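Consider what follows.

. . .
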Amino acid sequence: ENCLVAMHAGLEIASTTGVHTWTFQLLVNGYGGALAGQDLEAAAQIAARLESHAAGAGRSNLCLYHHFQAWEAMLRKDLMRALQQERTALRMAIEVGCPYFEALCRLALAEVHAECGDERKSIAHLQQLRPLVEAVNNRHLEFTCLIGFGRIALDHGRQRSGLSALRRGLALGRGLEAQRCPRLV
């Protein structure tokens, strides 16, 4: 909800000033915010607005746009569209040399392949996560990948590896939360 409010405020400033340098970024992040809130109606409206700005967007921004299109497709249970959009996002992440986005896209592709019943391709993407996450050295990304891996592993009957990843991810998450919100004594 806060993301959509910020998007609208930014777009209002752009409209008032006539400076539209960040319009695509505002819209794409609003799109992600709508998807996070599972507001598919708002997401579809924002996606329609994004289409007219996509031609002038850079590859990094388009990577995020396609990643979010895949997310919307997953929420709508359109697995083939999700697969197509996430493959496009991954290709762009690799082309621009952004291992952070590459890791997010590979995790998402692993999930889509798992939903499609293609465990071999799902595992192939999951196996490529560790070196990417280590190279990026971002604890939030590591947390996201551990939790995602754990959930996929459990969904496919891999109890030991799934629980291990979830334990590590939750321990990491507790540490991140403690850093963000220290307890008052």
